[in-house]
Write a structure and sequence with these properties.
The protein is mainly α. About 75% of the residues lie in helices and about 0% in strands. The chain starts with a helix and ends with a helix.
Length: about 120
């Protein structure tokens, strides 16, 4: 037996196996960070609404990706470039005007998702 094997076997045999205790579910106040049950209920309901909105936003982005692919395919097949930078600048300005500086970041991410899917 090599020294490395002895060390490995010793480490394995000396590691106690402890039974896993089931986690107790968090209470609504623990889950939300609220201090009252009423606030926890409000936060829980609002989070459900946010999750629904997020699902809709994701669906809309997926739809936008598909429409962008149609546009890119038409542009490329007609001899044009895959990306129209002037149009992208319009989109960036639209998001910036509507949402401020973070809107530009959001638009850049969305444009990145929509590029090159062909």
């Amino acid at each position: 037996m090599t020294a490395m094997t002895a060390v490995t076997q010793t480490a394995v045999t000396q590691t106690p196996l402890t039974p896993q205790t089931p986690q107790t579910p968090l209470t609504p106040t623990e889950k939300t960070g609220a201090r009252t049950d009423e606030a926890a209920a409000l936060i829980g309901d609002a989070r459900e609404r946010i999750d629904t909105l997020d699902d809709r936003i994701i669906g809309l982005i997926q739809e936008r990706v598909a429409v962008s692919a149609v546009i890119q395919e038409a542009r490329i097949s007609s001899g044009g470039r895959r990306v129209n930078l002037a149009r992208e600048m319009e989109v960036l300005a639209h998001y910036r005007d509507a949402l401020g500086k973070p809107g530009t970041t959001l638009a850049m991410t969305m444009l990145e998702l929509c590029r090159g899917r062909i």
